[in-house]
Design brief:
alpha/beta; seven-stranded mixed beta sheet; 13 helices; 51% helix
């Protein structure tokens, strides 16, 4: 059976393959255009930088040594109006003694302590940190985060403009340890780029609970996490997703604002990260879910139709040329994006990972069905 189109005849398999390949190519090209727009967004105009008051909230449970390394850098930021709020969440490792010692010499350090376990430990710790803070903006970090230098907060704040309410920053895993570091790097980077590309359509999505920010007044006005306590974790990401939109959200894409994660990366960390991402996806709006799903399906159909056409179509050189153009275009702009956020040594393994991403997600959906919740990330 043959199909005639535009004066040419194709077999039914070839015609279906060409249609699917063409549509998938256009969809992926559309996502790459959104990525380019994200990469070039956020350039500072020639104006006086906006420097609002900022509270950095750090929740900690038994991270004494990590706090000992993080806090001195945070407390000495070159910034006119900021404070550090540390919530000691039931620590038993002497964290309170370290905080008491630092408070003597740093007036911008505030501390509070939780002395009893609850059913919502993450939500409670964050809420207490917000209540203890006093500045306009809230930035959230973990004791396992590391910031590049004492200019980090100043660079971060320049994107917190008066019309913004939400900021989504990047956290890389270059300084992490463990066998699953590369997996988490790929997953985190891919999700962040998709979130940045989605922002052009008002569909930015939170990726990680740290290096994010929002206004304190917004949290208090909306009664904090009251609307998202049905989730066992990720309350902060869900809250940001609830209040963010196209106009009030900024996704930070410059290499001076990311923070580094320094913890161990084990198999359970990868599973928990994917579980959180899948859980967040269920809470996303219909538009956000469609945006993510269309990207995954188009990548899958592009690969499948390419394989089919290489088998049944005599136009294989044209098809390989079109596919090669898309691949080169993607590699170029992903390379630019890695430099923008301070990543390196991603290509070509990242592209291989992205090609198999739909299958990886299916695998983790199955894993989630049979893996209990091992721990909650703090």
């Amino acid at each position: 059976m043959a199909v005639e189109f535009g004066g040419f005849q194709f077999s039914i398999e070839e015609f279906i393959g060409l249609v699917v390949f063409g549509l998938s190519f256009l969809v992926q090209l559309f996502y790459l255009i959104l990525l380019i727009k994200f990469i070039f967004s956020g350039k500072q105009k020639n104006k006086e930088p906006n420097l609002p008051s900022i509270s950095i909230v750090v929740t900690s449970r038994n991270y004494l040594e990590q706090l000992r390394e993080l806090l001195p850098t945070l407390l000495t930021q070159d910034y006119p109006d900021f404070e550090i709020v540390v919530v000691d969440d039931c620590s038993t490792d002497g964290t309170d003694w370290l905080l008491a010692e630092l408070k003597i010499s740093h007036g911008n350090l505030k501390t509070t302590k939780i002395i009893q376990e609850t059913d919502f430990p993450n939500a409670l710790a964050i809420t207490i940190g917000v209540r203890a803070s006093s500045k306009v903006w809230l930035v959230f970090l973990s004791p396992l985060c590391r910031i590049p230098d004492n200019q980090w907060l100043r660079d971060y704040a320049q994107r917190l403009e008066p019309d913004k309410e939400v900021s989504i920053g990047y956290m890389h895993f270059n300084q992490a340890t463990g066998n699953y570091k590369s997996w988490l790097r790929f997953e985190n980077f891919t999700s962040f780029l998709l979130s940045g590309a989605g922002q052009a359509c008002g569909l930015a999505m939170p990726v990680f609970e740290y290096n994010m920010a929002y206004r304190r007044e917004t949290f208090l006005d909306l009664r904090g996490f009251a609307a998202v306590l049905d989730s066992p974790f990720s309350e902060n990401e869900l809250f940001i997703n609830k209040i963010g939109n196209r106009k009030n959200t900024v996704v930070l894409n410059n290499k001076t604002t990311p923070v580094a994660f320094t913890g161990e990366t084990e198999w359970i960390d990868l599973v928990e990260f994917k579980k959180k991402q899948l859980m967040l996806r269920r809470k996303f709006s219909a538009g956000q879910r469609f945006f993510r799903t269309l990207n995954l399906i188009s990548r899958l159909t592009l690969t499948a139709s390419l394989i089919l056409l290489l088998i049944v179509s005599p136009l294989l050189y044209w098809i390989l040329g079109i596919w090669g153009f898309l691949l080169l275009f993607e590699m170029t702009w992903i390379g630019v994006a890695t430099k923008k956020v301070g990543e390196k040594n991603f290509l070509p393994m990242l592209l291989i990972y992205k090609a198999f991403l739909p299958f990886i997600n299916i695998y983790f959906v199955i894993v989630q069905l049979f893996t209990g919740q091992k721990r909650k990330w703090k």
